[in-house]
Amino acid sequence: MLTVYIAARDIGNYKDNTERLKEVLIESDIILAESFREATTLFKALNIKKEKDRLIEFSEHTKKSKDIDDIITKIINCKTVTLISDCGTPVLEDPGRLLLEYCYSHNIKVRPIAGVSSVTAAIMCLPFNFKEFYYAGLLPRDEREREKKLMYLKKLNVPIIILDTPYRLNKVLNAVKKVYSKEKEAALCLDITTDNEEIVIDSINNICTKYQDNKKREFVLVIS
Predict the structure, then answer these.
(1) Residues 193 and 211 in one domain
(2) Nearest residue to 222 via CA among 187, 195, 177, 189
(3) How far is Cα 26 from Cα 188, in angstroms, rounded to an integer?
(4) Which of 6, 28, 76, 192 is the most exposed place for a label (fewest CB within 10 A)?
(5) Residue ranges of the Tetrapyrrole methylase domain (predicted)?
(6) Which residue, 57, 41, 46, is CA-closest to 24?
């Protein structure tokens, strides 16, 4: 009987990967990966034999109809399949949900391989009140829609957690600075778990001024 593992991996530090992740990756008949490059780099770090025939791309470019059907055809007779993203925990901001929808509608067993998440890693290090919080995830790509979303988030009286692709750091910071009070407290967590890690708590104005010229860094922005 097929089991699909939804497996968390590191967010920058390969030492954070668990032995259980390594075991499941070795045992899997097929590994669904967001990108071949990141997957093979992970295999090398974990000393796992690189086998291209076990890898199938499962990314934002995977279409819901034909591509998904082709993937299902390949995995349906397998014993073990594992889904990994380029970093951190799958499904939050990648197409894993499409796979989960199929699994539950066809009674396929789904199991988590728990591990690192940039969201929880950021929460662990910040002195904000996280009894309640709002996970906003990726903001809209369109500038006008992005500002509209931030106007909505501004009305919520809880910490707001925003993460986006590294190359949109400047756009996110500029939009936040435009919508929120310049004195509003926020935290910017950059390249968490890596040698370049920075966690900065300051006013939105100071954070945006200091980091808006950073071209590409992994980040989580938390507005208190």
Answers:
(1) yes
(2) 187
(3) 36
(4) 76
(5) 5-205
(6) 46
Structural tokens at position 168: 């949109």
> pTM (2 decimals)?
0.89
* The pairing of beta strand 55-57 with beta strand 3-7: unpaired
Residue 60's nearest CA partner among 163, 147, 138 is 138
- Evaluate the CA torsion angle 189, 124, 147, 64 in order and state its sign: positive
For residue 59, CA distances in Å to 42, 56, 67, 146 come to 17, 10, 11, 23
Give percent helix, percent strand, percent coil of the chain, each to the nearest 5. Answer: 40, 20, 40
Structure tokens at 78: 């397998």
**Quick one: tokens of 147?**
């500002």
Same domain, 218 and 143: yes
Per-residue pLDDT of 134-188, as tens digits, reads 999 999 999 999 999 999 999 999 999 999 888 899 999 999 999 998 899 999 9
Domain containing residue 51: CATH number: 3.40.1010.10
Between CA 219 and CA 197 the distance in angstroms is 10
